[in-house]
Amino acid sequence: MFIDVYSKATGRKHRVPEHYLTNPVLAKPFRKTPKTRAAETSSATPETDVVTATTDTTETPAARGQE
User: Fold this and answer.
1) Phi, psi angle pair for 15, to nearest 5°
2) pTM (predicted TM-score)
3) pLDDT tens per residue across span 3-43
4) Mean pLDDT value across the chain
5) In sequence order, which residues have a C-beta less than 8 Å from that of residue 14 and are 6 or more positions away?
6) What stretch of H or E contains 62?
7) Is residue 53 predicted with pLDDT exceeding 90?
8) Is the pLDDT of residue 59 over 70?
9) Which long-range contacts does 5-8 make (Cβ < 8 Å, 24+ apart)?
10) Which stretches of the chain are assigned E, i.e. beta strand?
11) Beta strand pairing status for 13-17 and 30-32?
């Protein structure tokens, strides 16, 4: 599989085999793109559902001054 990287020397975008980044010698002239880094971190962490706490914003008649 190929991934997108930027050249550290020129800043130009390249496509290289994924195994290049596991080898320190081959990876030295490249840095990952933000998209590649984001894909790597999202696949490394388990997917979880985001649960947000909600508060009841409805007022009771007593809170509004009506009884």
Assistant:
1) -115, 125
2) 0.57
3) 999 999 999 999 999 999 999 999 999 999 998 888 878 86
4) 80
5) 4, 5, 6, 7, 30
6) none
7) no
8) no
9) 5/30, 5/31, 5/32, 5/33, 5/36, 6/30, 6/31, 6/32, 6/33
10) 2-7, 13-17, 30-32
11) unpaired
